[in-house]
Amino acid sequence: MRVMGIDPGLTRCGIGVVEGRPGAPGTMVAVTVVRTDPEAPLAERLLALDDGLRALLELHQPEAVAVERVFSQHNVSSVIGTAQASGIALLAAARRGLPTATYTPSEVKNAVCGNGTADKRQITSMVTRILRLKEAPKPADAADALAIAVCHLWRGGVKARIESARIESAHRAASQSAAAAAAARGRR
Q1: What CATH fold (topology level) applies to the domain 2-162?
Q2: 3-class SS of residue 141
Q3: Residue 119 annotated as part of some ligand binding site
Q4: Active site residue 141
Q5: Is residue 7 annotated as part of the catalytic site, yes or no?
Q6: Active-site residue, from 50, 68, 107, 144
C-alpha cells in the first residue's frame, strides 16, 4: 500500500510518501515540503498549497492519505492556519476519491516511537530507522509527514480491516434476520 502522510501547515506543509504493509518497515518513496509565502494573501497561500498537494498526489499516486489532526495550542492564529491547511489536504485527497484518515500527534508518536509524548528528535530518529534511511529527513515537517504515513500504514490498514469486518458482520446479521423473518412468515 502507498500512503501519503501530510503534516499540515500553512507556511510549511510536510509531505511524506511511504510504501509497505502493516508490520513491515516500509520504504520511503518521497519526502518534501510545500511552502507558501507568509506575506502573501491567505487565499493565494491556500491556492498554492492546493496546487502543490494536487501535483504531488498526481505524481505519487497514493492509495490513501493520512493527515495529522489539528490539536489545540495556545497560539490561536497558528491553529487556524494549520486547520486551513488540513482542510485543503483532505479536500485534495477527496477530489481524487482517496480514502483519508486523521491521527492525533500522540497517536503518530505512539505508533512510531512507542511513546505518545516523544519529541521531534525521537520521531526523526525512529522514522530514519524504520524506513532505513541513510540520513534523517529534514526539516522536521518532512520527518513528521513520514511518521504520519508510517502510522497509517501500520494502523490504518488494521482499522480498515476491522471496519470492513464490522460492516460485513452487520450485513450478515441483517441477512440472517431477514431470512428468519421470511421463514417465520412461511410457517404461518
Answers
A1: Nucleotidyltransferase; domain 5 (3.30.420)
A2: helix
A3: no
A4: yes
A5: yes
A6: 68
